[in-house]
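Bit of a strange request maybe. I'm writing a small parser for structure token strings and I need a real example to test against, not something I typed by hand. Could someone generate the tokens for this chain?
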Amino acid sequence: MAERQITGRHVLIGFVAAFSVIIGVNLVLAYSAVRTFPGLEVRNGYIASQTFNERKTAQEALGWILAAEAQDGLLSLRFTDESGRPVRPASVEATVGRATEDHEDISARLTYTGQAFEAPVALGAGKWILRLRAYSADGTLFQQRREILMDRG
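Reply from user aminoacidic:
Good idea to test on real output. This should exercise your parser:
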């Protein structure tokens, strides 16, 4: 029986096949990443950074503390001041969504109950991100992003 020899052609075919698999997997992953990316947070990060310290100082001066929870299909947002007294912002906007995709984002329709802002939300199991924007009576922005973990069971 004749022994098979590895020729230059065999080596070339092996290299082309291996790199084809690597490039193919990279293309699939790149397509998936671009397809699921929800977009930019701000149009121009440099411009947004120019007023960051002023916005942060104004928000901290409000002294608001946010307690956010989602249970039994209800999102509840409670604002208090530093001494624990309830605070009612002039307006509140909240979006709940996944960290990596925007197709499940929910713009919560919040109503004030006298104690908290509440909205019905149907959140599946896993990690969710709450993006909150609340405004004081004088127009000062209170902005936070919070993780909400929903039980898998």
